[in-house]
Write a structure and sequence with these properties.
The chain contains 20 helices and four strands. The longest helix has about 30 residues. The protein starts with 8 loop residues before the first helix and ends with a helix. The strands form two sheets. It has a two-stranded antiparallel ribbon. The protein is about 65% helix and about 5% strand. By secondary structure, the protein is mainly alpha-helical. Helix 1 runs antiparallel to helix 2, helix 10 runs parallel beside helix 16 and helix 15 runs antiparallel to helix 16.
Amino acid sequence: MVSRVQLPPEIQLAQRLAGNEQVTRDRAVRKLRKYIVARTQHAAGGFSHDELLKVWKGLFYCMWMQDKPLLQEELGRTISQLVHAFQTTEAQHLFLQTFWQTMNREWTGIDRLRLDKFYMLMRMVLNESFKTVKVRGWEDRACDWGREGRECRPVVAARGTSLPFLRQIEQLLELLTTEILHPSSQAPHGVKSHFIEIFLEELTKVGAEELTAEQNLKFVDPFCRVAARTKDSLVLHSITRGVFETIVEQAPFAIEDLMRELDAQSEEEEEGASDGDESSEGSEDTRDLPSQKRSEKLPAGSIRRAEPDVGQEQWEDDRDGPVLQFDYGALANRLFEMASRQSTPSHNRKRLYKVIRKLQDLAGGVFPEDELPEKACRSLLEGRRKKKNKKRLPKARLQHKKGKGDQEDVSADPSSGVQRAQPRGRSRGGAGKRKRTPRRPSGARAEVADVQEPEKKKKRILGSKK
């Protein structure tokens, strides 16, 4: 008997992940997670680049075979959370790198019916990759993961040794830039455009409440470099529209969030000061009142705002939550530094200079909506409406005249020199062969139409009857 050659566990899992039965695929995903945790616990144990490519091949076709939107969303969440099963940062980055390489390789074979679920998978993987950095506190510090991968303990390195977990943000951004944004990458335009579109959205979901303006500038820096170097007009348009224009559009919301934080701090300080004053006075009436009623009776010059209007509440409900904070002046300077180089193409330079002007205006306190005063905007709109109405009146009259003239079109008769009425839209041959309605008898016509006829015609009719 010929002994069977035992396949490596990665290939066996990949075959089960791409199986026809959903029960087999779900069981294979659970076994894969346990296998990753068990293999990456030891420092010597780990996955190679080729092994993770085989694993992602199976995961790709596991998502390919899954139908029903809710089950697709659940499977995508389970696959994206596999990155947290790896115990080291290097293994996590290798897992993410092989994912983007797999998407670049298989993208052209995805049909339009399966495109949405792979868009969703890319979004979820990017979200979980940001969470791997969030676990470390968005800081460049070394971490030693616990056995279950849930704890991050600081590591003290010996002299002369480099910490392997330093610069987490830079490593992640370098990985994403190399595999997706760089001109030499094998990423198709669909992958690039979708990645650029969802980058700020997923970063906002994960770290809008914790990230500072300096850290956000670090996340946006790869897009500044690529926008200044790329020769692909589609990539340039996607970056300017999906990143820089989005930052400009979200500027009012970002400043509003900042003002809310300042108001909350000032309210806390005022409440503490008012409580101290009331306790020093020691009046019995104020002691009996609760703190909420005291806060309602603030003086007129206090910072506490009035209740928002109905329109303002609806406008606030449209927002999903806090937005990213940016130092617009620093971002404009960084873009100008990259765009002003000699190696930057002229088309890229012109496009980036427009964005730089908007960012400089925001840094100076000028918003795009505040370029014209409100009264000037109203007068301009009213003037435009009056001009449009004046222009529309003669057009309506002309159309009314044309509507009457469409029924009869004047054409010259060469024989008689008299102009005949010809219906519009018919050919010349059809105009000559026009049908004539037969004449009714004169008596019948007079009886039908209750109209007084001339006397000459009446005499002729009476004579013919006799």
